[in-house]
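This protein record is not my work; I was only asked to verify it. Take the sequence as given and treat only the tokens as open to question. I have pasted the whole thing underneath without changing anything:
***
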Amino acid sequence: MNHIFRTVTVILAIAMGAGTLFAAPKRENLATRIINSEYALEEIMKKPETRIPASILQQAKGIILTLNYRAGFMLGGHGGRGVLVAKNPLNGKWGVPAFVSTGGANFGFQIGAKEVDTIYVIMDEATVGRAYTGRFDLSADAAAVAGPVGVVSEKKESNDYKNANILVYTTTKGLYAGVSIKGGWVKPDNSATKAFYNTEYNAPEIVLSDWFELPREAKALINRINYYTAGQF
């Protein structure tokens, strides 16, 4: 009975778009979220069929690494939490991470999946700005499609993703270039970000700063992103 009650509670919270489903936890739990994000990136990058090409990461303006939990088979949606890392527009370097929450996306080919690790590679600065300043919808406010994988050849590039704001990668098989992401939203989790950095600054000041020191818990993640951006697998 208790298990049923917990399941119904989660489903109702996601259906209502509850941003408080994942309230800001203690700092050590936020550090674990960063570590899990690094693990999700590693899982995607170690397989040729899901690997993000280095050329895409080099062009990218930001990256969101999420751990998404499905509400169930019938709803076809999910709620999740993640980490946003953006490139500083002044020096082109990956900055310090901030926290985001996600929900509602339907990938179409993942019916029955209970957990889906997803990476959103943001290709323009305007979309990065929407990710850390307020909620935006993946289908209404940005063109999100499944990104190319492996080694990308200029001659073989498809126009399906060239004009997309967001390229989507997942550990779950079934997403292919040209498949649109239906619904879904991303918004900053400012309470978590403030708790992690022990500051009153919000995500914009933190993500694009060059004066917030990279926390030791996030060094492995940023090193790994830099590693893959340089084409080292």
Q: What stands out?
A: DSSP finds eight helices and eight strands in the chain. Residues 2-229 form one domain. The CA atoms of residues 40 and 46 lie 10 Å apart. Residues 2-24, 71-77, 108-113, 173-180 have pLDDT under 50 and may be disordered.
